[in-house]
């Protein structure tokens, strides 16, 4: 059986820009330097989309990889799609966050800038002057900025984008927004987010959010498609059945589940062999896609259960 390449599928953002459906996730927080080799392997294998954030500590290593790839003529900046994000510590200073990301990445624009979480953290500083990513009090409770609000955080990114006129920030979007927050946002937004990046996989199909976002022209990017650390989704029986039927890797089944439904997906790996073996688009049938969604309704599991999200609609039953 011959397969289309997932790396060649392009979606369209509401800005009109092409959006490569398959991206490389880079939340390599345990070993950020490994990101350089992973990005080089991914781009050489045909990936054209890289997902990062200040939170991951990987932007500088992506910058090193890009320098190498550009110098060798493997790819040009214009052929790549780079997403980075504004962490809740920077909710009122997205320009600073964006400029620092650009510097670390060594590029002069990003294709997509996302509000990482609909939250605002208090500013607490490390001895070296850097902002503490996860500020907590003496009892370990997260410190939220009482003057901050998720809608204001988006508005600040929107202001930056409108001021920039789309030159250095080609599109903006959100992450970790479920329907109630999307509804509130759309009442006031001057720029409809191009993307909502959410956890999505056969254990968590979240069809309600997907359908709502898509009805508003917001594309979905699926994060943690393999189930995050340890990749537990690889063991789902339906995934294993598809692996045997199509003679593909479980990674390819899990990414194809999204791309076949018009969504973008950003699996993470630092294993260059696995990166290269994750690019075929498996022609999962309508029945198979429906079976995956039904499996999720009966076996829901959220793998990213960050406690700071406890008060965000959609996350409250899952944190802890
Ligand atoms: N916007 C947000 O709040 C979030 C965004 N993300 C983004 O999404 C990306 C993907 O999500 P992740 O949570 O990183 O998890 P993921 O679902 O992509 O899984 C990554 C894990 O699977 C392992 N893995 C990959 N292939 C494997 C294989 N064949 N066998 C065994 N293990 C395998 C990797 O080593 C890694 O530990 C992130 O890297 C990041 O870019 C992730 C979490 C939250
Ligand atoms: O983007 C993110 O990645 C981590 C988990 O890997 C999560 O805390 C954050 O939202």
UniProtKB/TrEMBL annotation:
Q: Which residues form the NADP-dependent oxidoreductase domain?
A: 22-294
Q: From the Swiss-Prot or TrEMBL record, give the protein name.
A: NADP-dependent oxidoreductase domain-containing protein
Record Pfam families: Aldo_ket_red
Which parts of the sequence are marked as the site Lowers pKa of active site Tyr? 85
Q: Which UniProt keywords apply?
A: Oxidoreductase
Q: What residue range is the signal peptide?
A: none
Q: Which organism is it from?
A: Kuraishia capsulata CBS 1993
A single GO molecular-function term is: oxidoreductase activity, acting on the CH-OH group of donors, NAD or NADP as acceptor
The active site annotation covers 56
Q: Where does substrate bind?
A: 116
Please give the PROSITE patterns that the UniProt record associates with this protein.
Answer: ALDOKETO_REDUCTASE_1, ALDOKETO_REDUCTASE_2
Q: Which domain of life is it from?
A: Eukaryota
